[in-house]
């Protein structure tokens, strides 16, 4: 097993990816962890939702309301392609971004991907009642929302690294900083 991990680390480093993408369901802490991590390593932090809002001058909720989820997903792809051309970026992705195959191709080529895996019960406590999350209005019960979570898990689990996100922010950031598959990115600076 140890040899397999070393081979995987070598493969990740040989791809030449100089960016990190944080993946996970809404409420998993991608933005918070990403900001803290970027500050610690001196990289730039970006969030796909923020970039879309800047590009359109509209809130994510309003984009969903006016044009629907499909239009929003096309904007996500455009933003992802723009960020992929940069280096030393820590990117917090939207929860549905990895569920699009075209996006996975971009992620694989330009980012080391990290899935912040959080139990659904914890996620739900974090996000319930958050009016800034348009999908919450489409999934009226926790059970419906959990089905969406389960559907997306197969995409999240493709990540290069899976981090237990059921812990404190400090513990998560520390694990990422010193993880054998990731820490070599900081040493290359």
Q: What would you note in describing this structure?
A:
There is one protein chain. The protein is an alpha/beta fold. The protein has a single domain (21-187), classed as 3-Layer(aba) Sandwich (Rossmann fold), CATH 3.40.50.300. Helix content is 59%, strand content 12%. A 5-stranded parallel sheet has the order 2-3-1-4-5. Helix 2 packs across helix 9, helix 3 crosses helix 4 and helix 4 (60-84) packs across helix 5 (101-110). The longest helix is centred in the middle third of the chain and has 25 residues, at 60-84. The mean pLDDT is 87.
Q: In brief, what are we looking at here?
A:
The chain has about 190 residues and is an alpha/beta fold. It is built from ten helices and five strands, in the order H-E-H-E-H-H-E-H-E-H-H-H-E-H-H.
Itemize the secondary structure elements and their pairings:
Elements: H1 2-14, E1 20-23, H2 30-41, E2 44-47, H3 48-56, H4 60-84, E3 89-92, H5 101-110, E4 112-117, H6 120-127, H7 135-138, H8 142-156, E5 161-164, H9 169-178, H10 183-187
Parallel strand pairs: 1-3, 1-4, 2-3, 4-5
């Amino acid at each position: 097993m140890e040899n397999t991990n070393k081979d995987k680390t070598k493969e990740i480093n040989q791809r030449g990816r100089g960016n990190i993408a944080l993946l996970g369901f809404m409420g998993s802490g991608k933005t918070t962890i990403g900001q803290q991590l970027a500050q610690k390593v001196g990289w730039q932090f970006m969030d796909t939702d923020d970039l879309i809002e800047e590009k359109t001058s509209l809130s994510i909720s309003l984009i969903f309301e006016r044009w629907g989820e499909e239009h929003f997903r096309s904007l996500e792809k455009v933003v992802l392609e723009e960020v992929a051309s940069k280096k030393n970026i820590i990117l917090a992705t939207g929860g549905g971004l990895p569920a699009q195959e075209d996006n996975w191709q971009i992620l694989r080529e330009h980012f080391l991907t990290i899935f912040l895996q959080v139990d659904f019960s914890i996620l739900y406590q974090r996000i319930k009642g958050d009016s800034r999350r348009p999908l919450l209005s489409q999934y009226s019960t926790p059970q419906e929302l959990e089905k969406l979570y389960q559907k997306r898990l197969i995409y999240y689990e493709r990540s290069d690294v899976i981090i237990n996100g059921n812990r404190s922010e400090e513990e998560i950031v520390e694990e990422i900083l010193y993880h054998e598959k990731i820490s070599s990115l900081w040493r290359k600076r």
